[in-house]
Amino acid sequence: MIRPETPDDYARIRAIHAGAFPQPLEAQLVEDLRAAGDHVPELCLVHPHGHVMTSKARVDDHPALALGPIAVDTTYQRQGIGSELIRAVIERAQHTDYTLIGLLGHPTYYPRFGFRPGAELGIESTYDAPSEAWMVLPLPAYTDDVRGTFHYAPAFP
């Protein structure tokens, strides 16, 4: 049920994000990342009722991934679809040369997937956000010299 997105999915993806968030920011961000070529197509995954965007990022000169936006159709929320999408991204990202996945998210939700505060690994966010909301997940390509500032793709506000 979970697979990489295709152009045939784009209208439905926009509708899912537009319905899941009160502002159009996330739906537009997904499209802007795609238009700029800053998304990672094989890691932008769809489910019949959800979507997760994964984009190129970096920790100084080290390649990294940014997770999000992620959205689930409001009718199907709290049924594990978001968790399935996150697990699928992590599984697929394990087989890449990216060093880690970074995100700003709820500090009690994402640790169940292995995310931990970026500060524990010496990785800072450019966003002024609570430190517990800035999290990273090291991937197999991660080494201890991956430290510094996490930079999202330019489409991020």
From TrEMBL:
Recorded hits in InterPro entries, A to Z, give: Acyl_CoA_acyltransferase (IPR016181), GNAT_dom (IPR000182)
Q: Which domain of life is it from?
A: Bacteria
- Name the PROSITE patterns on file: GNAT
Pfam families documented for this protein: Acetyltransf_7 (PF13508)
Q: Where is the N-acetyltransferase domain positioned along the sequence?
A: 1-140
**What is the name of this protein?**
N-acetyltransferase
Tell me what organism the protein belongs to: Solirubrobacter deserti
